[in-house]
Amino acid sequence: MFFSILSCLSLLTSVVVAQTNTPYCDSTSGICLTGYTDPDLDITVGFILPEDDTSTEYIVQMVAPISYGYTGISMGGTMANSLLFVMWPNDNEVVFSTRWTNGYVQPDLYTGPTITMLKGSGVNSTHIAATFRCQNCTVWEDGSLGSGNTTAFQLIAYVAQTTTMVTDPSDPGSDFVEHDQFDFFGADLSTAHSSSYNSYIGSGASSSSSSAAPVSTPVSSSTSTASASGATQTKYGQCGGTGWTGPTACASGSTCNAVSPPYYSQCQ
Ligand SMILES: *[C@@H]1O[C@H](CO)[C@@H](O)[C@H](O)[C@H]1NC(C)=O
Ligand SMILES: *[C@@H]1O[C@H](CO)[C@@H](O)[C@H](O)[C@H]1NC(C)=O
Ligand SMILES: *[C@@H]1O[C@H](CO)[C@@H](O)[C@H](O)[C@H]1NC(C)=O
């Protein structure tokens, strides 16, 4: 059964609570987050929320070894009925998608969140990193961050598939096999709100560059930024599908194809 191990989640909760998030700053993006690096899996998950605790958005950073077939995290502490973020490398690009499943089966693409990739995303010789703004992300089908209270405790789960690449690395909607390993950590969301948040999502994401924040490195996203009309989507980004309100035009060199009609179209 796919992801069957995670159904044992409740048995492991006591292990998790001992692991707590700590503040750190990412030198590439200039964004300071609160997060946790797993010493065994070498996966870092960090996040930061706006000062306003009624906001429905936040920034997440995921960093993992380049050798992993994929890396995924759950913002709800369980695989099922939680907002999931999944990333893997494709050549020198980050392929990213939001996912959801109501059981321990292959998670499907999930629409609702609006993802904007920020500086601090990319692939190098050793690691893959995704740093992104997630809007409309505190509430999802059958769940919510901190049970609706973003100053409460949240159990975060993350999973890693260490040996098997996804079926089609160029497709953000690709199937993938059950993870080899997984772990959890707990986050005290009351310490994860920052007065600098707005500077991270604007043009000031990097202290060392004057360029605009999003996508400084080759990155593709299944649910990339829904910005001004007339914007074009990057290659491998989403360009249509049920509920999609983002760009429907593709960057030159790619065209919009319905890869999973009617739910998902992608610039290819
Ligand atoms: C927010 O996400 C939910 C799914 O989690 C979706 O049903 C809803 O339409 C989204 N709202 C907006 C404004 O995109
Ligand atoms: C590769 O990226 C990781 C994660 O961002 C970073 O820690 C590491 O220093 C980078 N390595 C090189 C050689 O740039
Ligand atoms: C949210 O959680 C915090 C910490 O557990 C608690 O002090 C606060 O009263 C809660 N707020 C609401 C609106 O439930």
UniProtKB/TrEMBL annotation:
GO cellular component: extracellular region
Low complexity: compositionally biased ranges: 207-232
Residue ranges of every copy of the CBM1 domain listed in the record: 231-268
Gene Ontology MF terms: cellulose binding
Region listing for Disordered, in residue ranges: 207-233
Single GO biological process annotation from the record: carbohydrate metabolic process
Assigned keywords, A-Z: Signal
Signal peptide region: 1-18
One protein family per Pfam: CDH-cyt
InterPro entries in alphabetical order: CBD, CBD_sf, Cellobiose_DH-like_cyt
This protein's name: Carbohydrate-binding module family 1 protein
Species whose genome carries this gene: Schizopora paradoxa
